[in-house]
Structure prediction request, 240 residues.
Amino acid sequence: MGTLTFHLEPAPYFDFSGRHIPVNIIKSARAKNIKLKVRPSGVVELVLPKRVSLKNGLAFLQSEQGWIANAVKDIEPSVAFEDGAVIPILGKPHTICHTPHSKRGVWAADGKILVSGDLPHLPRRVRDWIRREAKIQLTLKTTYYCSLIEEPVRRITIRDQKSRWGSCSSAGNLNFSWRLFLMPEEVLSYVVAHEVAHLRHLNHKKEFWDLTEKLFPEMERAKKWIKINGTSLHKYDTTN
Ligand SMILES: [Zn+2]
Prediction:
């Protein structure tokens, strides 16, 4: 196992054999006890109840280093949106290329995501572009699956939900994670078919799964892909 050292400056982090592991310290009025967890993105989260001082919180963090090292060792390093980073777009690797002198905004071509403008704005511009493109793609698919079951398309919202890829509200509004746009197109299609099927059945009973499979016959293969690869998509753009 690698070595873990804690640093408080400039922002709390662990150095884990050269890897930067951010530590998010949260003061909570509601928390009763100290809570420590490692997010799938590799960020360590320390929640401190009001009565616990920062000093005692940090002492606790030091005492749990063995546990933390074990929890982070299998997490893949995070991938920031920066020049040269490789990001899957609909499952195909794309390299982010800063092209400061072109005036085209952000666009994808030949396995590249080209980004014009000043370098400091690049992460935000890539982030905005991916969310925009994800929404276009997810809206198209939603419209298609809704037409198959003759349901109207209601509101579609793009989020960064950590625990789920999509959800359906009782009012029929659909929420999707922008990270679906990183998955192969057929897996994204499955998630949309799944949420659209919830417009008919707001449960996971047999009738729901039968309808999902009718909409998307390759369902089992897509579910398997998500089970194997889903978590690792949380390593991209861990800034929020
Ligand atoms: Zn569901």
About this structure: The helical segments are 54-63, 65-72, 122-148, 185-197, 206-215, 219-229. The CA atoms of residues 83 and 106 lie 13 Å apart. The chain has six helices and twelve strands. Residues 194, 198, 204 surround zinc ion (CB under 6 Å).
